[in-house]
Amino acid sequence: MIKINKVYCKSPSISENYDILKNIDLEIEQGSFVSVIGRNGSGKTTLGRLIKGLIQPTSGEISVNGEKGDGIDDNVGYIFTNPENQIVHPVVEDDIAFGLENIMFDEAMIAGNVESALTEVDMFDFLKAQIHWLSKGEQQKVVFAGIIALDHDVIIFDEATSMLDAKSKEEFMKIVMKLNKVDKRTIIFITHDMRDAMYADKVLLLDSGQIAYYGSKKEFFNNEELKKEYNFDFPDIVNLVNFYNRRGYEMNYNNIPAIAGKLHKIIKDKLH
After folding, report:
1. What angle do helix axes 92-102 and 136-149 make, rounded to 10 degrees?
2. pTM > 0.85
3. Total tally of structural domains belonging to the chain
4. 229/247 same-domain check
5. Could you write out the three-class secondary structure of 139-192?
6. N or C: which terminal CB in the chain sees fewer CB atoms within 10 Å?
């Protein structure tokens, strides 16, 4: 459980009188998948870094699974936009092992965790590979494997798929969904892409450092007032699902094969 109580945070790069986050009250249950959206400068990354413990709030309190202050870091993994910012060794195996060595794992446990994490992201064949040979998508999977190896309860993705091509992003999101739905890890997915919200259970919308919406994905995608106020361009599949749901059909936003099957049946029935 992540608890954020009346948190304010000033940006170090602008006027000290300006709060980049204002009066944030928030609870995120263990095992949730929350998509964090909002315009540039709305406070998305600042919120993620606060939860990770990379920066401290001006006032208020944050706890992760009951831990506060320096103890938060052990519970939370963080994946940045550019994998090069998190890669510290030239060889895949050594890079993933780095975090485990820092917390004094023994050699046998390190080797086991590294191999297991690489298998999880379908990169085991790259165990001995030079990282600079890898594509951006493969490099991001290496970073991902490093986070998985550390077995964090919470993983924050900060625009982590924005540099990936469509195929790499699809593969990446399958792993994210498995960690959430099967392994029950809490996922906080910071994004500017509305399509990413389709994977989430809940959507958190930030506006000028404040919470404008926090609730279910279904309610968010059906909120016409928010759509108009923020000029949201919902994905075509969301608009299509909304169209048919309003007519009595029940469709899930992130189950595209099921949507395709239902649409096929609807069209077939209409033609006959």
Report:
1. 30
2. yes
3. 2
4. no
5. HHHHHHHHHHHCCCCEEEEECCCCCCCHHHHHHHHHHHHHHHHCCCCEEEEECC
6. C
On whether both 214 and 239 belong to a single domain, the answer is: no
pLDDT digits (tens, 9 = 90+) for 125-184: 999 999 999 998 899 999 999 999 998 899 999 999 888 888 888 888 989 999 999 999
> What CATH number should be reported for the domain holding residue 108?
3.40.50.300
Task: Specify whether 26 is located in the same domain as 39.
Answer: yes
Domain of residue 142, residue span? 2-233
Regarding whether 244 and 118 lie in a shared domain, the answer is no
Q: What one-character-per-residue DSSP string does the chain give?
A: -EEEEEEEEE-TTS-TT-EEEEEEEEEE-TT-EEEEE-STTSSHHHHHHHHHTSS--SEEEEEETTEEGGGGGGGEEEE-S-GGGT--SSBHHHHHHHHHHHTT--HHHHHHHHHHHHHHTT-GGGTT-BGGGS-HHHHHHHHHHHHHHTT-SEEEEESTTTTS-HHHHHHHHHHHHHHHHTT--EEEEE-S-GGGGGG-SEEEEEETTEEEEEEEHHHHHT-HHHHHHTT----HHHHHHHHHHTTT----TT-HHHHHHHHHHHHHHHH-
